[in-house]
Design goal:
The protein is an alpha/beta fold. It contains twelve helices and twelve strands.
Length: 416
């Protein structure tokens, strides 16, 4: 009888230990951000050179919003939770040492800002949507962007090479070895957007591998091949090796399940990024020393990648060609890439000449179940980008509702 009770006590002890380990792991993983929504702010976070940055504090796991210069903020506003009660006021932007932030009239348009700060070869910005089989909703929104804004050239990177578009699209780089047509953009008149497809082996031979091991391994098993890559590797390959893509002065990279509330919201985020003279834009970042139980550091550890390491959600990022060259340097040195959520931010944070900006509009890029977001979560924040929403029909519905509530900015001028 005593041996039975001994066995029971041992089993109970093991269960308690496992429960404590699970609690410790879940409290330090990126997915635990939902539990942080009830926490108060603290001034003990890690300062950064970027604006509107959210860091997790190692001691009490609280969220800070940090200004570039502490003196610039009268107080530290709370980062928004989901759904947050009120949007936090943005911290005033401050220039880095020896670098002035340009001043423009409050009424300056995004196009004026572009012309004054980022001269480009074709006068526009490259926007790449990353997808496997692009949805009809994505194709529709890509057309809306190109027809309602002269700022953006839109590309859809389709990982599945057997996918055939239901509408006629230019295909890069097969059709034309040049940028999208440089004819004068007239709002309201149709413009082209392009489909990007590459054979996997060509990208693998160029050493663009390893950015999303879980997705790539599943794809390799499905294809019966030892190695596979996805749309992330193809997008960076295009920007580095194809002249048709690398003549832009700024890029946005967005995964298809990232909800973009409106073309106007993308323009406003672009304007803020230009005002800050950003080389790299993304959602809040976490240091390896703080988020040390994150399960994907092993990729860096195995390669002895230089520290410090950082990670964040990267479902939407913006960057300049200066940042693209940093990614090219990684490929040249290591003959591979690394897990995207750690590589992308570590490269940015460890480059002294890369000016990093983490706007409040991207604090809603999180690791949630796709059913988490409802319309009432979206409407108070019409310029915030949300991830993930994997029901793509919901994207169209949310944008329609925001437009009905006059939350998508002024309507574009009609074509003459």
């Amino acid at each position: 009888m005593s041996s039975v009770w001994t066995t029971v006590r041992v089993l109970v002890a093991v269960q308690v230990v496992l429960l404590l380990f699970w609690i410790a792991w879940s409290s330090t993983s990126p997915g635990s951000m939902v539990a942080l929504s009830s926490l108060t702010t603290t001034a003990a976070g890690v300062a950064s050179s970027s604006d509107d940055v959210a860091f997790i504090d190692d001691d009490d796991r609280k969220v800070d919003c940090i200004c570039p210069e502490a003196a610039a903020c009268p107080s530290l506003p709370a980062c928004p939770s989901l759904p947050p009660p009120t949007p936090p006021p943005p911290c005033p932007t401050a220039p880095q040492a020896g670098q002035a932030v340009p001043t423009l009239p409050a009424s300056a348009s995004v196009a004026d800002l572009l012309a004054s700060q980022l001269p480009t070869n074709n006068g526009r910005i490259g926007v790449m949507f990353l997808s496997n089989n692009p949805s009809p909703e994505l194709l529709s929104f890509a057309a809306e962007i190109t027809n309602s804004s002269c700022l953006f050239d839109v590309y859809i990177v389709a990982d599945n090479n057997s996918w055939v578009s239901p509408v006629a699209l230019l295909k890069r780089p097969k059709d034309l070895q040049r940028p999208l047509p440089e004819a004068e953009c007239i709002l309201g008149r149709p413009r082209e957007f392009a489909l990007v497809q590459y054979e996997d082996q060509m990208i693998i031979d160029a050493y663009f591998t390893g950015m999303n091991r879980m997705v790539n391994e599943k794809k390799a098993q499905r294809l019966g091949k030892p190695l596979a890559i996805a749309s992330w590797e193809k997008a960076f390959y295009a920007m580095i090796h194809e002249p048709v893509y690398n003549n832009y002065s700024f890029y946005w990279l967005l995964e298809e399940d990232t909800f973009v509330p409106s073309v106007w919201a993308l323009e406003q985020l672009t304007k803020k990024s230009f005002s800050f003279q950003a080389d790299f834009v993304s959602s809040p970042v976490y240091r390896q020393e703080i988020d040390r139980y994150w399960p994907f550091w092993w990729d860096f550890e195995k390669a002895d990648f230089p520290k410090p390491w950082f990670e964040s959600m990267v479902n939407i990022i913006g960057f300049t060609p200066k940042y693209v060259r940093k990614i090219r340097d990684v490929v040249d040195k290591w003959h591979r890439l690394f897990f995207l959520e750690s590589l992308i931010n570590t490269v940015a944070e460890n480059s002294e000449d890369i000016r990093v900006y983490r706007p409040v509009e991207l604090t809603s890029i999180q690791f949630y179940d796709s059913e988490h977001y409802k319309l009432e979560d979206i409407t108070p924040y019409p310029t915030f980008f949300f991830h993930p929403i994997r029901n793509f029909a919901t994207h169209d519905e949310f944008r329609r509702q925001l437009k009905a509530l006059n939350l998508t900015g002024p309507p574009p001028p009609r074509a003459a």
